[in-house]
Structure formats: structure tokens, C-alpha cells
Amino acid sequence: MSFTPSTPLIVVVSALGAQGASVVSAYLQSSDYQIRALTSDPSCDAAVRLAAKNSRVTVVGVDLSSLESVVAAFHGASFIFAQTVFRPDTFASQGPAAAQALEARHGLNIAEAASKIPSLQHLIWSTLPDAFGVSQGKYNIPHFQAKIPAEQYLRNPDNGLADKTTYLHVGLYGSNAERWPYLPVYVKGAQKYVITLPCSPNALIPFVGDESVNVGLIVQAILSQPEKTLGKSVLGASEYLSCTDWALALSKALKDNVTFAETTLESYEAVWGIAGTEVGLMFRYFNEVQRDAISVPAIITPAELGVQESLRSTEQRLQGMDWRDILIQTS
């Protein structure tokens, strides 16, 4: 297929990550778009495989710490899907404040670069709740707050993007249970698996479900209905699950008994260190604010965009995972 200058270009930031890969996969199903997939390492195996997959995908290297690099990567974009990453290497070596500052800088470079692209019609910013603001300073969750400076820039009418942006609030990935500290641990004495979090069994947690599919479907729905979504926030979740429901979904996937056990934040931190503080505060926030303040007022749901029935649930994601290999980590 040949492309004309009028063929719309969608640029996907962090295209090799879970969210970005889902967006690229969704748009590969349509022949109406060019796709520019951005990554920090275009020579890695995953980038090479993606570039070879389809002639409509161009893989481009970008340095999110350089405004000039991001502007060049966005050149000619009609649509942009942007997500930043709370880098685990920075978190481990320098701590949460450094990881937050780095991600915030990347986000601000993305926002400022987007403001310099005259061809841009619609930007989707993958964000998280302003937990610090919602909780009036009680919950400072670095990987949440790292997203907020860019969102504030985008919402400011003086920067020219307030009416070109949608804010996508993506819930927990369905696959999170395959990694620490969410991974179920087998307790021999009780003859069952246990997941432990500093959260009430009944607290409602937003899950995106199968992140490999659902993020792309929701992004397509957002971009195809700008009259509903420009300037608005969209819920990137297939469902709300309690911790008890999550354990039940895991039981079905593992074909074994999984129980949820509530713990204190202090005990969780004692086990997991700074990672326990980061994850534990997130679940305490969910526990306290519940559904009404998880995101923002008047958030648009997938049902309102007509894609709810197409989304794959957390249970479906869990059942598609190779638990025999995953659980080797706990043996």
C-alpha cells in the first residue's frame, strides 16, 4: 500500500511497553493510518521485530530527556499516544524522588513538544490520579505524581493543547499478578496461595483487564469520537475488582485456592522496602477514596464510548498466562 501526504500519522510513545504495544497492535488492524513507534532503543530485538512486521510501522529512536529529540519524533503527527515510565532502574538506584523527577521531566518534554506540532489534531496522555491533590496531601505516591506536571501543562489553555487532549486513566494491568510484590505465594501449612496487600478485602480497585488488548481498543474509541473525548478524561478500566474478587479470579486461573490477606502498610513496607511503600500507598489510597475519587469527576467510561463489551477482563488475562513457569519464582 502506498501512502499519501494526507494519510494520518499516529505517533506512539513508549511503543514497546504494554500500553504502547497495545495501541500499535490495534492500529495495525486498520489500513488507514501510518504508525510511528517511538522507543529509546530502536536497535533492540523487539524494535527490530516490530519494524519488520508491517510496512506501515516506522520505528524511531527518541530521547525523552531532550525536547529537540521529541519535537523531531512528533513531526507531522496527526495523533499522539503518550505514556511515560517510572523507571525501575532509577527507582532502585536513586530512590522514588529521583524516578519521579525523571518521569516528570519526560512528560513535560512530551507536552511541550506536542504544543509545537501544527498538524496535531488529538493527543492522548496516559495519566494517573492526582492522589496528593485528591487526598489533600495525605497520599504522596511518586509514580502517580510523576504524571501530574505534564497534565497540568496540557490543561493550561495558554499552552494551546487544552482542547486537543484526552486524559486516559489506565487501571492496574491484568498481568500484574505475575510479578512481585503481587505474585501469589504458596503457604504449605495452609495448602493455598496467598496475596497480601495493605488494603481492605472489599476496596474497589480499577483494573484495565487485558492490557495487551484493551488499551488499544479504548484509544481507538477515544480518537474516533473526538466530539465526546477532546478535553475530557477517560477511564481506562474494564472493571472494578475488590481484592477478594481478584483472589477469586486468580483461583480460577491457577486452578488452586488463592486467598487475600490484608496487612498493615508498616508490615508491607517491612517486607518490601521502598517498593512496599510505593505499592502500599497506592492501595491505601484506593482503600480510602474508593470508586468516587479514584480518577476525576465526570470521567467518561468505556461503556459510554461503546467498547465495554469488546474489552477482555482481568480474569481472561490471568487465564491466558503460563502460571506453571510464573510460579517457579515462589518455589
Automatic annotation (TrEMBL):
Signal peptide, first to last residue: 1-20
Keywords associated with the record: NADP, Signal
Name of this protein: NmrA-like domain-containing protein
Residue span(s) of domain NmrA-like: 9-296
Species for this entry: Talaromyces atroroseus
Cellular component, GO, one term: nucleus
Family indicated by similarity: Belongs to the NmrA-type oxidoreductase family.
Domain of life of the source: Eukaryota
